Amino acid sequence: MAGLIAYGAYVPYHRLARADVGAVLGSRGGKGTRAVAGYDEDTTSMAVEAARGALARDGLRGRIGQLFLATAAPAYLDKTNATAVHAALGLDEHVLAADMAGSVRSGLGALLTAARSPIPTLTVLSDLRTGLPGGTDEVAGGDGAAAFVFGGHRNGAPVIAELLAHDTVSDEILDRWRLPGAPVSRVWEERFAEEIYVSLADKALTAALDHAGVDVGSIDHFVVAGLHARACASVRRTAGVRPEAVTPDLAGAIGNAGTAQPGLLLADVLDRARPGETIALVVLGDGVGVLLLRTTDALPAHRAARPVAEQIAQGSAPMPYATYLSWRGLLDREPPRRPDPEPPYAPPAHRRTAWKYGFVASRCEKCGTRHLPPDRVCTSCHSVDAMTDEPMAHVRGTVATFTVDRLAATPSPPMLVVVVDYDGGGRFRCQLTDATEADAAIGARVEMTFRRTVTASGVHNYFWKARPVRTGEAEETR
Fold it and tell me: Are the C-beta atoms of residues 56 and 305 closer than 8 Å to each other?
């Protein structure tokens, strides 16, 4: 039986209240909030966080045969972004890592490619949505990522949701577009594409149901995703699915995450679905795609450690609208009067890939001392080249001391720097993110997160930061 083996989702910590947008611009901002990627986050770093959740099960990481990253907002062009995700996850060097980028529909393409693949495939959907200030894309958009591993029993991992059928219908529809280099999308009048999408959704859903031998009335969870909100609402209303089976779109709490929205909605359903239930995922955009899944008895034991609903509930208090505009590059603030940051250099970064991207320390085989960064010579017993690699990304720690730096260059002053004592030994100094000054406290518990520390000379510098462990978060396993 082929199907879904594991999944994970990532909802950024920060929130923007739509009412605050309206209050500043003198317009109707709407109700609710949207999720906002931090100043040190992009689609690559969010992809890493979602994938870490999907690969939390012991032994699953070593079974991955290929990795696809789908996004409409890649951090790089020309250069592959999936390779940074690959390095951060510590996957085998023979694992194919490739981007599916440039359009929102790439998320559907990555999911279907993974579902059809005969080898275990990790597919990650990640997006960062931006619009003109006060526009629909800004207030209705959202940021986030979701990751899924498809495979089968022959790959040594239980299937949590069997793939029953899938179908796609493609159509050239000019309802949304963005030229290369343009910061925001342009959208045609919504009524133009609404009827087209409803018709295409009916074709794709009917074909998938017929192939699976499933009746529309037996669908337990009906998930509709897409940036065309009006068409999505019409499909939910006209598909003939039982009203109680139609799932919420989460837009009021975190917004529409574009490429990642189908993944976030599917992850939310898997967080609460019972064994034996049928899930229909319908994705609108330049056509329609449908995936039919049926959950198995293995699902309750292998749910994601951090449910989507929990991440939504643990979001921050709404941030100032000016801060959001600054983080998005739509409001230029005077930079600190400090020298410009240096970019990372390719040769040393490549030599230290395991440390820089994977956060892999070393432990002395003679005396057991853990070293961060990794070293050849033990600081305790002075043994030479008697080290074993020790991944640290999953290890939590305690703040030993901290500094609030009001002079350092950062898009979100002040910079919080902590010295962390890790469970099992080892100490390291790093930045604290997704936090306020009150979170920087001796004795506070923290965990590691993959972030973009700076972009200089057109080069992104990725590394690991600490973030507070929020109340109720489950311990992450390797």
Answer: yes
Distance CA 9, CA 270 (A): 11
Task: Return the structure tokens found at 182.
Answer: 């343009």
Token pair for 344 = 């990372």
> 427 is written with which tokens?
């100490």
Cis-peptide into 414, omega within 30 deg: yes
Residues 6+ apart with CB under 8 A from 382: none
The pLDDT tens digits of the residues spanning 290-315 come to: 999 999 999 999 999 999 999 999 99
Rounded distance between C-alpha atoms, residue 477 and residue 54, angstroms: 11
Q: Alpha carbon of 204 to those of 110, 170, 199, 249, 414: distances in Å?
A: 18, 10, 9, 20, 51
Q: How many CA atoms lie within 13 A of 345 on its CB side?
A: 3
User: Please, where are the H alpha helices in 26-105?
Assistant: 43-54, 82-89
Other beta carbons within 10 Å of 384: 10
pTM over 0.90: yes
User: In the block, which residue shows the tokens 């979170």?
Assistant: 439
Tens-digit pLDDT profile for residues 120-167? 999 999 999 999 998 999 999 999 999 999 997 555 689 999 999 999
